[in-house]
UniProtKB/TrEMBL annotation:
Location within or outside the cell: Cell outer membrane; Membrane
Domain Secretin/TonB short N-terminal, residue spans: 52-100
Residue numbers spanned by region Disordered: 1-23
InterPro entries in the record: GspD/PilQ, NolW-like, NolW-like_sf, Secretin/TonB_short_N, T2SS/T3SS_dom, T2SS_GspD_CS, Type_IV_pilus_biogenesis
Protein known as: DNA uptake porin HofQ
Gene that encodes the chain: hofQ
Keyword field: Cell outer membrane, Membrane, Signal, Transport
Organism: Rouxiella aceris
């Protein structure tokens, strides 16, 4: 066995004088050279260098060969400990070294003793009244949290009639549950959805600040309330109906007043104006239309029954309130309209033309979302006659003028979500 420990200041005794700042750093550096030496001997040399008392535990054994030149003392100690799978603790002038497995065993013993002390604590019962959360749902959740929020010995039950919780556990866990419930037992934020289902022409839509398409809003349009627009889906052309869906946002407008004014001028027809109140992440639905009866055969018996299918304009909205106060709307819009008649052996059946779209849009509180794209073409026949002469037999047609005019209107849905204060 060959071993030596050389401190850096001794090695530099004949060298030029070092600056005061670096001299202190050199005093913390050492050089080690050991060949197949016991780890306990190397640790003793390190302790002597720092004038520390050394205590080694049972299991500090093994031999090392190393050569370190001018390394910090702390780094040298960590290298030796790592190679020997050891750990150390320092208390004052005493350096204690023992195997890592012994430290792990000590920690496990402390944890076991702490758990034993926890299970030995007396149990008490406490009744907690909930104001907003459902007691049965909270009790079900707490029963899954035994061992974390509650101790394994905890008993949790719910009284739905009084919306109360009965919990039996140690005082510390009961205090934790009470603090947790203060954050959970809060009113669910609600959203009021104001909707207007109207038929309107393009000119009136422009007066409301609505322009479909991908064009970015200009400064003038933003002042008028147009926040931006986007088109969703492609239109499907039919002789009398153009079906598709568009979407745009408008904000800062007195929509109710403007729609009422346009209705008085016969420029818009308000089909429905429902208002719904729903909670965060809860679905609200609106339907407007009719149900079509059809016959259903019962099989070999030959008997038939009447069932109904919906031909309605339907809308489902699920709001999600974001932390910044904005509202994300998950929308499902469907337009089911009576189609052509289909001849069958039992008679005629009426088909249903269906248009549907699902989308998700984020709007600000109070901002209006506009959905459109379903067009209806109405034909208007008019007749002008010259008084008396227009009613003459045979010659009356010479004094009569007939005209056909087409009126194109769009079915538009306005949705305005508004947060309701708790």
């Amino acid at each position: 066995m060959i071993g030596s420990l050389l401190s850096a200041p001794l090695a530099a005794a004949n060298s030029p004088r070092t600056p005061p700042g670096k001299e202190k750093a050199l005093q913390q550096s050492i050089s080690l050279t050991f060949s197949d030496a016991p780890i306990a001997l190397i640790l003793q040399a390190l302790a002597d260098h720092q004038q520390l008392n050394l205590v080694t535990g049972k299991g500090v054994e093994g031999r090392l060969t190393l050569r370190l030149q001018a390394v910090p003392w702390q780094q040298a100690l960590e290298v030796v400990l790592r190679m020997g799978q050891l750990t150390s603790q320092k208390q004052g002038k005493v350096l204690m070294v023992f195997p890592e497995s012994e430290l792990l065993q000590q920690r496990q013993q402390k944890m076991a003793q702490a758990e034993q002390d926890r299970l030995a604590r007396p149990l008490i019962s406490r009744t907690l009244v909930l104001r907003h959360a459902q007691a049965s749902e909270v009790a079900s959740f707490l029963n899954t949290q035994k061992g974390s929020l509650l101790s394994p010995r905890a008993l949790v039950s719910a009284d739905p009639a009084g919306n109360t919780l009965l919990i039996r556990d140690a005082r510390q866990e009961l205090d934790q549950v009470r603090a947790w419930l203060e954050n959970v037992d809060r009113p669910v934020r609600q959203v009021q959805l104001a909707a207007h289902i109207v038929t309107i022409n393009r000119d009136s839509l422009r007066e409301l600040g609505v322009r479909w398409g991908f064009n970015r809003a200009t400064t003038t349009q933003e002042k008028n309330g147009l926040a931006g627009s986007v088109e969703i889906g492609a239109a499907v052309e039919k002789p009398m109906i153009t079906a598709g869906f568009n979407l745009v946002r408008i904000g800062g407008r007195m929509l109710d007043v403007e729609l009422t004014a346009l209705e008085q001028q016969d420029r818009v027809e308000i089909i429905a104006s429902p208002r719904l109140l729903t909670a965060n992440l809860q679905t609200a639905s609106i339907k407007q239309g009719t149900e079509i009866p059809y016959q259903v055969s019962s099989g070999a018996s030959g008997s038939t029954s009447i069932e109904f299918k919906e031909a309605v304009l339907g809308m489902e909205v699920t709001p999600q309130i974001l932390p910044d106060g904005a509202i994300t709307l998950q929308l499902q819009i469907s337009q089911n309209m009576p189609g052509r008649k289909i001849k069958q052996a039992e008679g005629e059946a009426l088909s249903i033309d269906k248009q549907e779209i699902k989308t998700q849009v984020t709007v600000k509180d109070g901002e209006t979302l506009v959905l459109g794209g379903i067009f209806q073409q109405h034909g208007i026949k008019s007749e002008n006659k010259v008084p008396i002469l227009g009613n003459l037999p045979l010659f009356g047609s010479l004094f009569t003028q007939q005209s056909n005019q087409g009126q194109r209107r769009e079915l538009v849905i306005f949705i305005t979500p508004t947060l309701i204060s708790s």
